[in-house]
Each structure stands twice: as C-alpha cells, then as structure tokens.
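Board notes (copied after class):
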Amino acid sequence: MVILIYLILGVVAVFVMLILIAPKKFDVKRSIIIDNTLPEVFQYLKHIKNQDEWSPWKKKDPNMKQEFEGIDGEVGFVAKWEGNRDVGIGEQEITKIVENETIESQLRFFKPWKSESNAYLRLEEVTPNKTKVVWGFSGENKIPINVFFLFFSMDKAVGKDFDEGLASLKLILEK
C-alpha cells in the first residue's frame, strides 16, 4: 500500500513538473516579400473574404459553409465557417486595423476542439514596390493542456500551411 502511495505521488509530481516546464504561449509566423506597393497589398489583405483566394484552409475544403457579419475590411467584421475535419468549425473577427501596417483578428475554434488565438498580418515597405508581409497567430496554452505542447509543435503543424498561403498570396498580388 505504501508503494502505491509513493507511486501515485511520483506520477503527480512528474505531471506537475511537466505543467511547469511546458510552454504557456505560442507564436507561429511566416513572411514573404511581395512585388507590389504597400497600400495595394494592405487594401487586399484587410478584406477577410479575399482569404478564400489564397488561404490553404479554403483549399482543404472548397465546399465549407461560410457566413459573414458586418462590413468586410472593418473592425468587427466576422467570418464564420463550418467545414470538414481539416478545417473544423470556427470564426474570425477583425479586432484591429492600423492602416498600411497591421490587421489583427481573433480566431475562435469550436471543433475539432475549442480554442482561441490571435491572428495577425503585419506589413512593411521594403522599397516603394516591394512589401514584406508577416502572417502569424499567437495564443496561450492553458494548464494542464500545455503539457501536450511538449510533444506537439504548433509551428510544424501550421507552418507549412502558412508558407503555402503566402506563396499563393504572392502569385495573386504580383499579377
């Protein structure tokens, strides 16, 4: 009986240690240089509906159901989706726009699991006809779920999708 108690205490102690050392936050981002002016790239990106043309997730389920609330390209606009298991169910709301600098939004996922994160597009003029676009998202890994992220890389999970999306964006904006 004493050995069982020590064993249980040992397992609990290991789990608590894992919780303490596991990452509490994540930030995944990728960037690309687009041969186009900053204002033109910004005007295109601030409209969430344009993501249908370059988002890798739209390609994963071209038949996903979508609903929209508000005025696209303005704070408060919400895009809702319901798709296959690759894209799940969720919504994206524009939360901040700084003209020719950044578009921020909140991503709320409901299925396959519930979570929230902050998405962003940051733009920077490299030259008058070249614009750097940084696409990313960040969030918190809540305790005790953060232990999972010791064994799962968010960067590896979505980084390839970000690269694919930015490559599509570049093709569209350089036509």
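Comment from the instructor: The CA atoms of residues 101 and 123 lie 5 Å apart. The chain has a mean pLDDT of 89.
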